[in-house]
Amino acid sequence: MRLLNIDYKKFDVYSENETREFKFPLLISIPHSGRIFPEEFFAITNRSLNDLRTNEDLFVDELLDPLAKEGISIIKVNVARAFIDVNRDKIELDEKMFYDYPADKIIFENTRCRSGYGLIHRVCANGKLIYENPISYVEVQARIKNIYDAYHKRLSLLVNKCVQKFGCCFLLDCHSMPSKICSIMGDDEKIDVCLGDLFSQSCPPTMSEFLCENLKEKGYDVLKNVPYSGAYTTFNYCQPRKKIYTLQLEINRSLYANEDKLSRNKNFEKVQKDLCDTIIRFAHSLKA
């Protein structure tokens, strides 16, 4: 048992593009493509970097890089998801992971925690345990303060900034999904893209349908709310009465990457162009 003393000033928690002045009432968030781990973290895990990166939304940030050149605002988390998952509620913790979990703290157990993918991941996506021994709850509170809270404070500020300029904001939360997730569907069901709008609660159906139809026109198989209807960001940031809308976009990694080798495949540039073209059209439609 050891308490990590991490210097969070060593790295940038998040990066931004085109957020000084919003050109469109659209904000892209990319919470799971970060690759940064504090050096000190490797003192409490025996997992390799490649093991830990299986939890990452592979290359989603690079897929969407061209959007910045079109003036679309983007914020992305640089810290790795396996270190802390900012697309969770901060109380989504598995108390069994900690040797000093406070006895008076509320236990919030859900399916994600039980599966090992709460705020602090217990396992890698390849099934390997990230920690062989219990870790410190106190140290995790430092992760929350310096990474989670810092990111969400900035994300909230940017959403409000967009609303102040346009009277509305559409927050598009972008992710990738492992190809094996399709195995939960019928054998004849193919999923290239999933659009999660909390079953039409987080944005008007016309908005999600615009993205859905444009992607279908490019040849992609698109489903809404299956297998993902939206997670923490989609649920907690949407305020339709204030014209703050959200949607979670998930793209099948096998379309553009070799999931085992953590590398781009020959279709990367095509998928990048198709995805960016669709989002650019959507951004212009929001101003129409």
Notes on the structure:
This protein is of the alpha/beta class and 288 residues long. It has a single domain, classed as Aminopeptidase (3-Layer(aba) Sandwich), CATH 3.40.630.40. It has 8 helices and 9 strands. The chain has helices at residues 49-53, 60-63, 66-69, 111-115, 137-166, 205-217, 232-237, 268-287; strands at 14-17, 26-30, 73-77, 169-177, 193-196, 222-224, 244-252, 257-258, 263-264. It has a 7-stranded mixed sheet with strand order 1-3-2-4-7-5-6. Strand 5, helix 6 (205-217) and strand 6 form a beta-alpha-beta unit. It is globular. The model has no long low-confidence stretch (mean pLDDT 93).
Shape: globular
Return residue spans where pLDDT drops below 50 for at least 5 consecutive residues: none
Biggest beta sheet summary: 7 strands, mixed
Level-2 CATH architecture? 3-Layer(aba) Sandwich
Question: Which bin fits the share of residues in helices?
Answer: 25-40%
Radius of gyration, rounded? 19 Å
CATH class: Alpha Beta
What fold name goes in the CATH topology slot?
Aminopeptidase
What is the helix/strand order? EEHHHEHHEEHEHEEEH
Query: What structural class should be given to the helix and strand makeup?
Result: alpha/beta
Report the total helices: 8
The percent range for strand residues is: 5-15%
Give the number of DSSP strands.
9
- Order of strands, main sheet, comes to 1-3-2-4-7-5-6
Kindly report how far apart the N and C termini lie: 57 Å
Mean pLDDT across residues: 93
User: CATH homologous superfamily?
Assistant: Zn-dependent exopeptidases
Q: How many domains make up the coordinates?
A: 1
